[in-house]
Amino acid sequence: MKKQNELKKIAAIEAMSCIKNIISKKNIIGVGTGSTVDYFIEELSSFKENFLGAVASSKRTELLLSRHGIKLFDLNELTELEVYIDGADEVDYSLSMIKGGGGALTREKIIASSAKEFICIADESKLSENNLGKFPLPVEVIPMAISVVSRYFRDLGGNPILRKDFVTDNGNYILDIHNFKIGNPVEMEKDINNIPGVVTCGLFAIRGADKLILATLNNGIKYFAK
Ligand code: 5RP
């Protein structure tokens, strides 16, 4: 665990040095959610005079950013977002991801869709050599649709489990779909998006990451790009 956290921090530090070159005083940075991003926020705080502020993907991130004195913006106020930095629960070589382990998938997906560049930061345990699906797929669901949506996933061979004692920042629930085979992530994401009651699914394939900064134990930092 200690090693994994060190790798998360290394990826976060690297992301900071990457964006230093593309960010100016008029830019706002999109900031994801999770423990890897927490390290990134620490880095951002020492650079805060060099950008305008941030748009946060969760209440948790909002709190952390304001504690570090970083100005918050509402996405509706912005006409463009230069870059979005976020972690992932699982990522493959095409830079499709499973996200939502922290339950912030909806806001994450909205911000990712509006950013010019999406940089994913992760430790090596997140990389999937084969198909995505090691990590249970989080799906945000309107509360009244939990049974209907669960049945849909059971019919597809998945095992949906309602995330215990958890309500999203948007007032919805999360179903974590275990044992779910994801063959074609783009098609699967479209199909899940079409289920009535689904707010967002944690597959980020239609808009995957543009870059992956992966911190590894034995081979240093690896870069992947689309
Ligand atoms: C939150 C997410 C996170 O990016 C994902 O869970 C990774 O978290 P961590 O950096 O703590 O491993 O999608 O909704």
Automatic annotation (TrEMBL):
One of its GO terms (biological process) is pentose-phosphate shunt, non-oxidative branch. It comes from the Bacteria. Gene3D superfamilies: 3.30.70.260, 3.40.50.1360. SUPFAM superfamilies: D-ribose-5-phosphate isomerase (RpiA), lid domain (SSF75445), NagB/RpiA/CoA transferase-like (SSF100950). GO terms for cellular component: cytosol. Pathway: Carbohydrate degradation; pentose phosphate pathway; D-ribose 5-phosphate from D-ribulose 5-phosphate (non-oxidative stage): step 1/1. Catalyzes the reversible conversion of ribose-5-phosphate to ribulose 5-phosphate. Homodimer. This is Ribose-5-phosphate isomerase A. It comes from Candidatus Kinetoplastidibacterium crithidiae TCC036E.
